[in-house]
Design brief:
Helix content is 81%, strand content 0%. It has 229 residues and is mainly alpha-helical. Helix 3 packs antiparallel against helix 4. The two termini are 16 Å apart. The N terminus is likely disordered.
């Protein structure tokens, strides 16, 4: 038996770690309740469940030993969630700003990783694809956005796209999370521009957003576990 295998876990680590599964379970239950409420048109359910999501996911990441930047990104996402519950332009801008700080946290976190040369080449190709998608999307939606939101939306979209691209350095989970985050916010933008939308549009926005944050968190935690190994 190796020395690593025979070394017992520290009591305080094991004690805290036992809360990981219940916290993840609570997050998944809150997510299911929120999505069901959106499908049923129960606004009160959404108002109660949505603010619970990111604190539960952040707590899960914390007890799993996640880095502080991950926890900060999730909590700034919580701030964005709360602001966007109010339906006015000021709340939208404040929410977008809170999410933007979260994306900066993610970008800083992704910049700390060391990607292999093959992954770097793939990431560069993905970056070009993301840049093309962003440019085309902004050209198409620009004239349909309210004039006062065009510059903030463009700046935020650039930051979000950079985060989605760089997420790929941590593997498939994080890459998928970044892509879904971009899709979720694109669905919000099309609603602001009054483009045709899917039935139950808020359901699809929240489904992609919840999946995005969960996959980003799992990607970061998995990368940290592999690095420690």
């Amino acid at each position: 038996m190796s020395a690593t295998a025979s070394r017992p876990a520290r009591p305080e680590t094991a004690g805290v770690g036992r809360f990981a599964r219940p916290l993840l379970g609570a997050f998944l239950v809150a997510a299911a309740v929120d999505l069901a409420g959106l499908l049923a048109g129960l606004d009160t359910v959404h108002l109660v469940a949505k603010p619970l999501l990111m604190p539960l996911l952040a707590a899960y990441a914390a007890v799993r030993g996640g880095p502080r930047l991950l926890i900060a990104a999730l909590l700034f996402g919580w701030g964005g969630d709360v602001f966007l519950l109010a339906d006015n332009d000021l709340a939208f801008l404040l929410g977008m700003g809170s999410f933007a700080v979260g994306h900066v946290c993610y970008l800083t976190l992704f910049g700390r990783g060391r990607a292999a040369s093959a992954r770097t080449r793939a990431s560069l190709a993905a970056g070009i694809a993301y840049a093309v998608v962003l440019a085309v999307f902004l050209v198409l939606i620009w004239s349909d956005l309210p004039a006062e939101l065009r510059v903030p939306v463009a700046g935020y979209s650039l930051l979000l796209t950079a985060m989605a691209w760089r997420a790929g350095v941590l593997g498939r989970y994080a890459a998928a999370g970044g892509a879904l985050f971009l899709l979720s916010d694109a669905l919000i933008a099309t609603g602001i521009a009054e483009w045709p939308r899917l039935p139950a549009p808020d359901f699809w926005v929240m489904l992609t957003y919840i999946a995005a944050q969960l996959l980003l968190a799992l990607g970061v935690l998995r990368a940290g576990r592999v690095g420690r190994s």
